[in-house]
Amino acid sequence: MHKRVALLVLATAVVSLAATSPETREITDPKKIASAEVSGAGAVPIDDLFYTRNTVGGAWSPDGKEIVFTSNFTGRFNLWKVSSSGGWPVQLSQSDNRQADAVWSPDGKWILYQSDIGGAETYDLFAIPSGGGKADNLTKTDEISETAPRWSPDGKQLAISYKKKSAPVTDVR
């Protein structure tokens, strides 16, 4: 009995797959595609597109009480942090340069991130105190892009992606 049921299920699956294979599908005629009309719909004004905000990335603090992330709330992609229990985010850094991929140090005192200097897509690594303050450029390299910083568990070493501007590949250091 179980073998017959299994064979029936298998046969049904094979027939079902055959009916929906690319060879048996009808070609869609683009002239016959129609969208429902929505009254009052219109074009999105260009100014509205410039006011679109985005949030990317996110890293938990070691104690789990805060989250650091990148957002363009103010028009530039800078670092922000927010309490993990909710609330309004606080801007951690302010720069015309794009900042991203923030990570907390294991002791929670520092936040490391990459910043695109002058839009050249050659990133340097920066460290900023987790409570806010002046960011320090740790790498200061014009011809090398350092990205994706990761702390060792003891906080004494970093792993980074490293790419010379002229190189075809990225290395890990």
Helix content: 10-25%
As residue ranges, the low-confidence spans are 1-16
How many E strands?
11
Distance between the termini: 62 Å
Description of the molecule:
The chain has 173 residues and is mainly beta. 13% of the residues lie in helices and 35% in strands. It is built from two helices and eleven strands, in the order H-H-E-E-E-E-E-E-E-E-E-E-E. The strands form three sheets. The chain has a four-stranded antiparallel beta sheet with strand order 1-2-3-4, with no helix packed on it. It has a four-stranded antiparallel beta sheet with strand order 5-6-7-8, with no helix packed on it. A hairpin with a 6-residue loop joins strand 2 (66-71) and strand 3. It is extended, with a radius of gyration of 26 Å. The chain starts with a helix and ends with a strand. The relative contact order is 0.09.
Distinctive features:
173 residues; mainly beta; 4-stranded antiparallel beta sheet; 11 strands; 13% helix
Summarize the structure.
The chain is mostly beta strands. The protein contains two helices and eleven strands; from the N terminus they run ααβββββββββββ.
